[in-house]
Amino acid sequence: MVQERPEAEVALLLVQTARAMRTLSSRNLAESGLYAGQDGVMLALQDSDGLTAGSLAARLGVKAPTMTRTIGRMEAQGFLERRPDVDDARLTKVYLTETGRAQLDAIAEAGRLSESLALKGFSDKQVRTLAKLLRALDGNLHGEPSD
What we know:
This protein has helices at residues 6-29, 38-47, 53-60, 64-77, 98-102, 104-118, 124-141, and strands spanning 80-84, 92-96. It is mainly alpha-helical. The longest helix has 24 residues, at 6-29.
């Protein structure tokens, strides 16, 4: 059997690892009634409550129609609410509800559980190195100049 290029193995492993991490995170979030991707919306709003759907989409790297559907679903679940902007009534902003805020601890715990399992057996130095390498990879994929 011909050995694949190391680059091809890295790409495959990254995709598989990301998928496994997302599956585990989704499983850990299921008890709180959240679906995959909704945690990112809530964490973005935790940092900056009152964002437009377009701002949320840009922060999370998804298309605006996808974000609009996600916001609608989360609003129906009681996690978010849409309100007109106080300074520009043409804009609608998205806010966490009290129900949504109450889920932030569950999201953090689900993240800790996922990270703990994923990094089991890694030293602190290995985790720092992995994080540095992944940031560099992400920067390359976004066309950012390397240090």
